[in-house]
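Task: encode each sequence below as structure tokens.

Item 1
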Amino acid sequence: MLDKNVLIKDIKIIANDLGFPTEATEHLAAKMEIIAADEESYKAFTDIVADYDVRVDIDYPAALEEMKKISERTGVHEYTCNMLHFLSLCPKLRERYAERALSDELFVNTMRDLTFKLNESFVVHGIWGTFVPKWYARFFKDFDRFFFTRLQFEPVELKYDCVVDGVELKAGQPALNVHIPRTGTKLDHAEVIESYRQAAEFYKDRFAEGEPILIVCQSWLLFPKHGEVLNESSNMLAFARDYTPINTYYFSDFSSLWRTFDKPYNGNPDEMPADTTLRRAYIDWLKKGEPLGSTYGVIIYENFAKKWTEN
């Protein structure tokens, strides 16, 4: 069984390298001490770490279920158990980056997503941890989601037949999917453009010669109603308008609105924070019963790059 002091030391090193707040790091270390004090829980926790040391394709759903059980036995919140779980896998993941000739800078930049999710969990729920643990399979198992400058990318297939810039595209064509992590910084458009450039270079071998590099994004940030309320200088609008909108998905419930309000939507618009133009607009739309949703958009990178080079 992995020595507790070694494990906690490794967790602190990773947390420090990823820029965790000192308060959060100390809190997580103290909670790891509590888990370690329960023999059954600590064995289950470290068995997963040992399993990941020898194979990347561990049973991730089972591991997350084990975090729930550890939470129930020890009283450490499930979100915190989730974060400790991912931090404990990071030393081996870091080695795997090196084995694949991927830089440590790329490792740190990519895995800072744990910092973003840590801070998000604290803002939304007041808990140091993460409430979206299923998000991390592509970081630890599939090993194909990476961060460049401001955005995250992973290889996918185009969802829809569509026409972009006069070019007919077919569902199933290779593409790069974009995520906009909550970094705590503005969505600077120059950084967005640089992100696309770096990602196109990094993933270029996934596209056949002469095949366009497609960049796709499904996000509430692309929802077209934002254009009704946001200033023309808005970074969000600049980001959204780079994409050709293909399909808008309307929410069947409002469980995703925590992204807008930094708190779960409780069904009462008047109790939501109204400190930004966008939040006030959402409150107005909710009161009117207007549909909300997210939009799927597509960029042909070569055309995009040419446009911005010319500009």
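Item 2
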Amino acid sequence: MSNKLHNFLWFFLIFILSFPILFLKIENFSFRLWDESMFAINSIEMLNQGSWLVPIYNGIADMWNSKPPMTNWLQMIFIKILGFNELAVRLPSAIASFFTILVTFFFVKKHFDSLVALISSLILITSLGFVGFHTSRTGDSDAIVTLFLTISSFIFLDILFKKDYTSYKLALFFLAISFAFLSKSIMAFLFFPAFLSILLLEGKDVLKKVFKSKYLYFGLATLLGVVLSFLFVRDNLQKGYLSYFVNNDLLRTVNEIENHKEPFLFYIKNLFLYRYEFWFVLSIIGIGLSLFRFKDDIKMKLVFYISLILLFYLVIISASVTKLEWYDMPIFPFLSIVAAVVIDELMNKIPNSKFKLVFVLVIFIFPYRIAFGKSQSNSFNSYEQKNEATEIFLYRSYLESKNLNNYTVYHSGYPRAIECYIHKFNEVKQNINLTFVPDFQIGERVIISRDSLKQILQNKYAYDIEFDEKNVTIYNIKGNVRD
């Protein structure tokens, strides 16, 4: 069997294993609040107005979205192909996660063997934090930046272990970092302390060889050019952006942003409890093994360096004041490799290869079943059922082709997910109004989910109830106003 055919078969197997969890039913729930609906509304308005650099919201430049435009670019391409819908918005993240799994597989296959590579991929596929909310299955930037950070790290490690210090791969390393910056700004640079520490551990001779390479300076110039060009051009197009970028992105490590201050152990606790629950202990053991054996075993030295990358990153985000649970996504490929090495150590105790396959099946059947169930349930917890009731109602109404022409949504809170559905209803020639001021008009048919707004209406107006289900009520305002 040729090497190309062999690699294609592995590609196909990884896709088959990933598809049910990453892609199946990916469109089957409403736009989530905050970042996903922010990206979605920005992307459709950018596409409509021909803006490929500055996010647009309600027809004007959007300062709230300070992220560079890579995620929007990818979403705009898919919206152009598939139309404005959940699938088009989410496919870039799902595809990025699939390629993260794929590059992890081939990197591990190169440095270990096919079985360890397959185990690493299965661990990634069954890691709930990697494939869940705000990561692989929602239209956010984290899956995309994770792909480029993973690629850059594997290029870096390949350079070291092949002793190819002056290779063109140095330029590719910085190109991947540039793409990571265009995906999620400063997150692109959070692996650099680990990279520098690894170079220092390699010694002065390696450092000298790296710094003699012309590709190092070409790559640095590319990265610097991308970063400065983006910041300069966007600040010129959107006055005040640079100041906002500094305060919102650069300084979130020392400032609390949007009430997201959490304790130092926030990420470790989340990894242990649910985001990486099946494999957490194995990864800790793998890190420990690499620490004690990296001097005598070249493969364990690679695991040790991988452990340093994930630990440096984990400490940096843990020390930051502002924390969000999905910020840990970039370390999942590295955690999967470290855990896979431990499983490989256990399998080496099994003499029969058939028993090894049974061992793998036994280990993964339950985590895979859980990951599949979580990804396909598309469920809303009680908070989401209440907080996103209007969005869920509009989503289901759109799917059921309900006529909501000239209805008015009264809302308090974050509006962009609702505005996504207003865009979708507009496409089928239905006009839905959105307002935040509870100044109800006689004759209006109004859609309300917030209890405070319902109370105002019920206290001041006579009404008929047209619909009342799952936290959403549709009122028909009658002609009598209560005193």
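Check on item 2: The mean pLDDT is 92. Residues 383-481 form one domain.
End of task.
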